[in-house]
Amino acid sequence: MSTPDLPLAPSGGCGDGCACGAEGDPHDVAEYLECGLDPALAQLLTDAGLDPLEVEDIANVAIQEDLDHGVDVTTVATIPEDAVATADFTAREAGVVAGLRVAEAVISVVCTDEFEVERHVEDGDRVEAGQRLLSVTTRTRDLLTAERSALNLLCRMSGVATHTRAWADALEGTKARVRDTRKTTPGLRALEKYAVRCGGGVNHRMSLSDAALVKDNHVVAAGGVAQAFEAVREAFPEVPIEVEVDTLHQLREVVDAGADLILLDNFTPGECEEAVGIVAGRAALEASGRLTLENAKAYADTGVDYLAVGALTHSSPILDIGLDLRAAE
Predict the structure, then answer these.
(1) Residue 184 belongs to domain with CATH number
(2) How far is CA 152 from the centre of its chain?
(3) Any bridge partners for residue 244, and if so which?
(4) Positions marked catalytic
(5) How far apart are CA 211 and CA 236, in angstroms?
(6) Domain with 51 in it: what CATH number?
C-alpha cells in the first residue's frame, strides 16, 4: 500500500518544510527537528490510539541523541546531497511487528523532502524472517541518518508485541487476557503499551491518575487493606479501584467492601481457583507473580480475568529488523 499524493520533492535542495532553505548545505540538528510530521501520518498515528505530538517528541529526542554535535559525518561525506534511494525495513526473524508508523515518524522528522512509503504489512501482523515490512523512498542522506533511531523504536516495539503474542497464544481458549503493568521504559510508556495491544494483550492504567491500585505499602500506611480501600473510595469516588491482596482473608475483606478489581499477589493456581469461587463474579480478578509462559494456561484455567505480566515491557528482547538500501539499478 502506498501513501497517496505524496510525491518526492525535486532533488538538489531542501523541501519547503525545512528551516535552512539552502541548497547543498549540510543540515544541523535544529534544522532536522523543525521539519515535523506529515498530516496524513499524524492521522494514522491518531487512528492507532497514539498521540502524534508525543510520537514526534520521542522521534525528536531519538534524533537529537544522534545529531547533538552536528551532522551524520559518515553519511554527509559519502553520499551526494541530491542522491535519492529506496530502502526496505526487513524482518531478520519471525515475530509480530509493531511501530511501523512510529518509524515513519522518525523519518518524517529527519527528511528534508517529502517521502514515499509502501506498506507491506500492518502493526499486529505476524511476519517471517526475510519479509519486507515497509519501503521508503527519499534522499539517501536522510534515510541513513534516520536509520538507527527508527530501527531502535521499531525493534523495541516489535519485541514487546512478539513477547505479548506468545502469552496471548498461551491463554487461547480461556477468558483470561494478558495485561501489562507500569514497568515500562521511561518516556516510552505509550509506545510500549501500544505494542502490547498489537500483540493481543490489554493495558493496565496508563498513569497513577487513571485508576487506583492499593498495594502492600498503602495497606501498611493506612493500617489495613479495607481501610486503604475505603480511604481511596472516599477521596476519589469516581475512580476505579484495584486492591492487591496476599491472602484469602484479605480477599474476603475487599470484595465485601466493594472493590472493582482484585490483584491476587503470588497466589498458586489452587488459591486462584478458590478466590474465583469466593468472589463469585462480584469483582474482576488478576493474577500476578509466579507467572511464566509454561504455567500461564494453568492460571488462566482457574477462571481469573487477567494475568498481569510486567515482563511484557521490562524484559522483552527486541525483534531483529534491518534497513536495507536497494542497490542502484
Answers:
(1) 3.20.20.70
(2) 12
(3) 263
(4) 148, 183, 215, 244, 265
(5) 10
(6) 3.90.1170.20
Contact 154, 284 (CB under 8 A): no
Express each pLDDT in 130-185 by its tens digit: 999 999 999 999 999 999 999 999 999 999 999 999 999 999 999 999 999 999 99
Q: At which residue does the C-alpha cell 532536522 appear?
A: 32
Those residues of the chain that have pLDDT short of 50 are 1-27, 31-35
Same structural domain, 215 and 294: yes
Burial class of residue 179, CB neighbours in 10 A (0-12, 13-18, 19+): buried
Cell readout for 285 is 480478578
Q: What is the pTM of this model?
A: 0.86
Q: Considering Cα of 273, then 274, then 277, then 283, what sign does the dihedral take?
A: negative
Q: Return the pLDDT at 266.
A: 96
Q: Is 275 strand, coil or helix?
A: helix
State residue 111 phi and psi, 5-degree precision: -65, 135
Counting Cβ atoms within 10 Å, is residue 262 exposed (0-12), middle (13-18) or buried (19+)? Answer: buried
